[in-house]
Design goal:
This protein has 20 helices and 40 strands. 23% of the residues lie in helices and 25% in strands. It folds into four domains: 98 residues, Alpha-Beta Plaits (2-Layer Sandwich), CATH 3.30.70.80; 341 residues, Rossmann fold; 159 residues, Glucose Oxidase, domain 1; 134 residues, Immunoglobulin-like (Sandwich). One of its GO terms (molecular function) is serine-type endopeptidase activity.
C-alpha cells in the first residue's frame, strides 16, 4: 500500500516536472546567436600569402567554392547533431573571413551549442543601431584634389563599402555621367547588383558598382513592415545615403531644401566607387546582418569599409576586443581592408566609445566654422538667437505679428484632454481658438510630450498650416534639461530658442481677473534661419561625441589603446537623403539632410582613406591609419588647443586625446606623412595574448590562433600613439617607423612628457633612407603618482618638413623607491 502511494506520488511529481519543463520551454523565447566554429574560412584556408598592399589573393577557384560549400554543410551538420529538431533556424553562414553562422534558437538550446565540440565562441546578437557639403573646403580637400588631378579624379579606382541602411539610387550624388567615364578599372572588385522593391538592375550604374541586402537577422528578430522595410538595397531611412555621399558622393551637387539653395555638396573622394551592403532596416537592425554584410564586402574586394552602424552596448561576458563583431573586423583587416567605425554618440561621459580595437579607426565628431543661426525679433527691440532652417515671417522682420502663448489660445470649453500635448505643445489644431492664432506667431513649449517622445515637430507644423499661423516658436523648458537643438528644415517660418520670453510677453498681454487674455499686445517676427554664418573658433569636439579612455570589459577597466583615433567633421553635415525618411517624418520628401553624429564623422575618414589609398596603392591599412593619425592637428583655427564641449551649454575645456584621438584629420598632410608606423595580423594576435590576466585558450577560442608570441606589454603594439593605463615606476616602449618618402631624411626627436612622468627617447635623432625603418625606444619613468591620466606627445621633425606626432596618454600609479 505504502509502495503504491509512493509510486503514485513519484509519478505525479514526474508529471509535474514534465509539465513545468514543458511550460518553461513554451515560454522560452527565441533569440539570435552568433557562433564561431573551428576551421579556416575561405579567405585563409590555404594560407594565401599577403600581396604588397596587404590584400589576400582573392579566392575565385573551384576549390574555394567547394570549400565554402563544405563549410556551410558543416554548420548544418553541427546544428543537426547538437540541437533538437525544429528548435532552431540557421539564418546565415559566415564563410569568407570567419567560419561561423547565425542561428535563431532558445537560450537553452544555445547553451547546448556552446558546449558542442568544434564551437569556439557563441554570443547573443546585441542588435545594431545607427550612430547618427561644406566639409571638403573645411578640411582643405580641394588642395588635395588639385594634386590628384582635381575632383574629376579624386578617389579613382578605389571601392568604398558601406554597411548601413542602403542607398537612394536616384539621388544625383550617385549618378553616373557618361561624359565623364571612370578611367581606372576595379578588377580587384567583383560585387553583384541585387534587385527588389524600388531598386531595379539599372541602379548599379557604374558609380554604384555593387548593391546587396541582408535581412535574415531582421526577419527573425521582428515582423517587418513591408511599406518601409524593403527587401532590396533601397534606403528607406536616408542614413545610408547620407553616409555614402559624405565619403564618395559626386562633386558639386546642388543642395536644395524647401526651394532654398544651400550650396554644393561633394564627397571626400568624389570619384571613388560605391558598394552598398544594406543591413539595417527601419524596424530593426541585427549584428547577424551587419556581420554577414562585412563578410560579403570583404569577399567582394572593397578597399575601404565604412561602418556608421554597430552594437550600441558593451559586449556581454567577454573582452571588448574579443566580441564577435570586433573579431570579424580583425579578419577584415587581415584581408587588407581599411575599416573605420563611428566612435559612438554617448559623450561627453568618459569611456563611452564603441570603437575599441586597435585594428579599426574610431572617428570622433566635431563642428566646423559654419552654423545656421536663427533669430527672433521682439516688439521691444530685443533679438533672441535660436535655430531653424526656415524662411522668415512675411516682410523679413519689417513687419511684426501678434505673439500668442499656446495655452492662452486654447478653447476654454473644449472637449479634449487637458494634457501638455493639447495645452502647450501645439500638437492638435482642435485645441485652439482659430481667431486667436490665425496670422499670429505662436509660442509652443517643449514639455512632457516631447520629453516622452510622443509629441513631434511635424505635428506642430501640421497645426500651424491648418490654423494659418504666421510662424511658431518652440521654447525650451529647463525642467527637462538644457537646450540642445539642431537646425531642422521647417516648411513654415519657425525657430527653436532656449530663452524664456515670458517677461516681455506678460508685460504686453492684457488679462481679466480670472487670468484669461483679453488682448494680445506682444509682437514678434522670425528671421531667416537658412543663411550660413562662418564665425567662431573651430573645430570644437561635439558634446555627443563618445570619449575615451578605451576599456577592455563591462567594468570599463581602461585599455592600453587610444580611442577615439581621430577627429572629423560630424556636426551639421549636409548630404544625400531618402525622401521616404521612414524614421524621421520631419525630413519626409527631402533629398538632402543636415545631420549630426559620429555616423557623419566616419565617412569623412573613409573618403580620405580612399584618397590616400589611390595615391599610395601599396600601403597597408595600418600605414593609412598611421598617416591619418600622425599628421592630425590638435590646434584650432586660432592656433589654440582644440576645445571640447562638456555637459552644460557653453562649457568648453581643452580637449585631450580621449576626446579627439590624435586630433583633427588633415588630408593634405596625410597624403605625404614622411614616416608611418605599421602593424599586421600577427602583431594584433600578439597584442591580444599580452592582455593582463588573459587565458591563451580564450584567444584560441576567439581567433583560432595559439599564443606562441606575446608582447612584453600591450602598449608595445606598434600603434601611432602610446597609451599606458597603469604605469608603475618605469616602462620601456618601442615604436618602429618606416620612411615612405622618396628621399633620405633626418629626424630630430623631441618629447612633451605627461605630468608625473619623465620621458627619454633613443635615438634623439636619426637618418632614414627611403623604405628604411628605424626603432625608437621610449623610456617612461614615474616622477609622481597621479589619480588620473595625463597627456603629452612625441614629435619627430624631419629635415624635409615632415612632422610626425605620437600622442602619449599615461596614468602614473607609483614611483620607483
Amino acid at each position: 500500500m505504502g509502495g503504491g502511494v509512493e509510486r503514485m506520488i513519484s509519478l505525479q511529481f514526474m508529471a509535474l516536472l514534465l509539465s513545468v519543463n514543458f511550460v518553461a520551454s513554451v515560454a522560452e523565447e527565441r533569440e539570435i546567436y552568433l557562433v564561431l566554429v573551428e576551421g579556416h574560412p575561405v579567405a585563409f584556408h590555404r594560407g594565401y600569402p599577403p600581396s604588397e598592399d596587404g590584400r589576400r589573393v582573392k579566392p575565385k577557384s573551384e576549390v574555394d567554392k567547394f570549400h565554402a560549400e563544405q563549410l556551410e554543410d558543416s554548420h548544418d551538420q553541427l546544428l543537426q547533431r547538437t540541437l533538437e529538431n525544429g528548435s532552431y533556424n540557421r539564418l546565415h553562414s559566415f564563410k569568407h573571413i570567419v567560419n561561423g553562422f547565425a542561428v535563431h534558437t532558445t537560450p537553452s538550446q544555445a547553451r547546448k551549442l556552446k558546449a558542442a565540440p568544434g564551437v569556439m565562441l557563441i554570443e547573443r546578437d546585441r542588435g545594431a543601431k545607427l550612430m547618427t557639403t561644406y566639409t571638403p573646403q573645411f578640411l582643405g580637400l580641394p588642395e588635395v584634389w588639385t594634386e590628384e588631378g582635381g575632383d574629376k579624379n579624386a578617389g579613382e579606382g578605389i571601392v568604398i563599402g558601406f554597411v548601413d541602411t542602403g542607398i537612394n539610387p536616384l539621388h544625383p550624388s550617385f549618378a553616373y555621367d557618361p561624359v565623364k567615364p571612370f578611367s581606372s578599372n576595379i578588377s580587384h572588385f567583383s560585387g553583384a547588383c541585387e534587385t527588389g522593391p524600388r531598386f531595379p538592375a539599372s541602379s548599379c550604374n557604374g558609380k554604384i558598382v555593387s548593391a546587396r541586402f541582408f535581412s535574415a537577422g531582421a526577419e527573425a528578430a521582428a515582423t517587418l513592415n513591408t511599406s518601409v522595410d524593403f527587401l532590396s538595397p533601397f534606403d528607406a531611412v536616408g542614413h545610408g545615403s547620407h553616409v555614402a555621399s559624405t565619403a564618395a558622393g559626386n562633386a558639386l551637387v546642388p543642395v536644395v531644401a524647401d526651394g532654398f539653395f544651400y550650396g554644393q555638396a561633394s564627397g571626400m573622394a568624389p570619384r571613388a566607387r560605391i558598394a552598398v551592403y544594406k543591413a539595417v532596416y527601419p524596424t530593426v537592425g541585427t549584428l547577424t546582418d551587419v556581420i554577414s554584410a562585412i563578410d560579403q564586402a570583404t569577399r567582394d574586394g572593397v578597399d575601404i569599409l565604412s561602418l556608421s552602424v554597430g552594437p550600441d552596448e558593451v559586449p556581454e561576458d567577454t573582452l571588448t576586443f574579443l566580441s564577435l563583431f570586433d573579431i570579424v573586423m580583425l579578419f577584415a583587416r587581415r584581408a587588407g581592408v581599411f575599416v573605420v567605425q563611428a566612435a559612438g554618440n554617448h559623450g561627453p561621459d568618459p569611456s563611452t566609445v564603441l570603437s575599441y580595437s586597435p585594428w579599426t579607426v574610431g572617428a570622433a565628431a566635431s563642428g566646423t566654422d559654419r552654423s545656421f543661426p536663427g533669430s527672433l525679433l521682439l516688439g521691444n527691440g530685443e533679438k533672441v538667437g535660436g535655430v531653424g532652417l526656415s524662411g522668415p515671417t512675411f516682410g523679413n522682420g519689417l513687419f511684426l505679428y501678434k505673439l500668442v502663448l499656446a495655452k492662452d489660445a486654447v478653447k476654454i470649453n473644449g472637449t479634449f484632454p487637458r494634457t501638455p500635448q493639447y495645452i502647450e505643445e501645439c500638437q492638435y489644431p482642435e485645441a485652439f481658438e482659430y481667431n486667436a492664432v490665425q496670422g499670429s506667431v505662436v509660442i509652443c513649449t517643449f514639455s512632457a510630450g516631447f520629453f516622452n517622445q510622443t509629441s513631434t515637430l511635424t505635428a506642430i507644423i501640421d497645426t500651424a498650416r491648418t490654423l494659418g499661423f504666421m510662424g511658431f516658436i518652440l521654447v525650451a523648458n529647463p525642467t527637462y534639461g538644457d537646450f540642445i537643438a539642431e537646425p531642422i528644415p521647417f516648411a513654415v517660418p519657425a525657430i527653436m530658442i532656449p530663452s524664456i520670453i515670458s517677461l516681455y510677453y506678460e508685460q504686453q498681454t492684457n488679462r481679466d481677473e480670472r487670468g484669461f487674455v483679453t488682448k494680445f499686445c506682444a509682437r514678434a517676427a522670425i528671421g531667416d534661419g537658412r543663411v550660413a554664418s562662418f564665425k567662431g573658433v573651430e573645430p570644437i569636439v561635439s558634446r555627443f561625441s563618445a570619449r575615451g579612455p578605451d576599456f577592455i570589459d563591462t567594468k570599463k577597466n581602461p585599455a592600453d589603446v587610444l580611442k577615439p583615433d581621430i577627429l572629423a567633421p560630424g556636426h551639421q553635415v549636409w548630404a544625400a537623403w531618402s525622401p521616404i525618411s521612414a524614421l524621421d517624418p520631419m525630413l519626409k520628401g527631402y533629398n538632402f539632410a543636415l545631420l549630426s553624429g559620429t555616423s557623419m564623422a566616419a565617412p569623412h575618414i573613409a573618403g580620405i582613406a580612399a584618397l590616400i589609398k589611390q595615391y599610395n596603392p601599396f600601403w597597408t591599412p595600418s600605414m593609412i591609419a598611421s598617416a591619418i593619425s600622425t599628421t592630425a592637428t590638435k590646434y584650432d583655427s586660432k592656433g589654440e588647443l582644440i576645445m571640447a564641449e562638456g555637459y552644460n551649454i557653453g562649457n568648453l575645456s581643452p580637449s585631450t586625446p580621449f576626446d579627439l584621438g590624435a586630433g583633427l584629420v588633415s588630408p593634405t598632410h596625410a597624403m605625404d606623412p614622411g614616416l608611418v608606423l605599421f602593424s599586421g595580423y600577427d602583431d594584433y594576435i600578439s597584442f591580444l595574448c599580452s592582455l593582463p590576466n588573459i587565458d591563451p585558450d580564450t584567444i584560441k577560442a576567439s581567433t583560432g590562433e595559439f599564443c606562441n608570441h606575446s608582447l612584453s606589454h600591450p602598449a608595445d603594439l606598434n600603434l601611432p600613439s602610446v597609451t599606458i593605463s597603469a604605469l608603475a615606476e618605469t616602462q620601456l616602449v618601442r615604436r618602429t617607423v618606416k620612411n615612405v618618402g622618396f628621399r633620405p631624411e633626418t629626424y630630430l626627436c623631441s618629447v612633451l612628457p605627461p605630468n608625473g612622468t619623465m620621458v627619454s627617447l633613443y635615438p634623439s635623432w636619426f637618418n632614414i633612407s627611403p623604405q628604411g625603418t628605424q626603432d625608437l625606444d621610449i623610456h617612461i619613468n614615474v616622477t609622481k603618482a597621479m589619480n588620473a591620466f595625463s597627456f603629452g606627445e612625441i614629435v619627430l621633425t624631419g629635415s624635409l618638413n615632415h612632422i610626425v606626432r605620437i600622442p602619449l596618454s599615461v596614468l602614473p600609479i607609483s614611483i620607483s623607491l
